[in-house]
Write a structure and sequence with these properties.
- The protein has 155 residues and is of the alpha+beta class.
- Helix 1 packs across helix 2.
- The protein is built from four helices and six strands.
Length: 155
């Protein structure tokens, strides 16, 4: 693909293709839905669909996968809030640098930071990563679901 320099029309993005890991996640989630709803005809269950081409989709996929594997996982929202009535932004009370996903799997503490595209860790996030590792916990920077999936399989 050619580099776009702001002149003419930008090059077209290649269409998103789901990795084998995402397809495996969808299969597992659909099987779990059938177990959760045994009295329902499987033809009428909405198919579980996942993506990892944006931060939100990747976060949802990772949290779902950890739970399907028997772990505990939760998205951590440490973003502040805009209060329209006050016309101001109220910062979060959470500690700076905490990861996007907190989890536990087989007794191990998991911190997963989601980074898509050119997004990079902040100094606060690097400090939390060091502290987590020093405390004996696991830390992973997820750029796509396949990378996370392969890392998780080693646990």
């Amino acid at each position: 693909m050619r580099e776009y320099r702001g002149i003419g029309t930008p090059p077209k993005k290649s269409p998103y293709q789901k990795s084998k890991a995402i397809l495996e996640l969808e299969k597992l989630a659909n099987e779990q839905a059938r177990r959760d709803h045994p009295g329902m005809d499987p033809r009428y269950l909405a198919p579980r669909k996942f993506t990892d081409d944006n931060s939100n989709g990747l976060t949802i996929a990772i949290v779902t996968y950890i739970k399907l594997m028997g772990g505990l996982a939760s998205r951590l929202n440490n973003q502040g809030t805009y209060i329209k009535k006050l016309n101001r932004y109220i910062p979060s009370t959470s500690r700076r640098g905490l990861p996007d996903i907190l989890g536990t799997y087989h007794g191990d503490s998991l911190f997963v930071e989601v980074k898509i595209g050119k997004d990079r860790q902040s100094e606060h996030q690097m400090k939390v990563e060091t502290e987590q590792r020093n405390a004996g916990g696991l830390y992973f920077i997820a750029k796509d679901f396949e990378g996370f999936y392969n890392w998780f399989k080693t646990l």
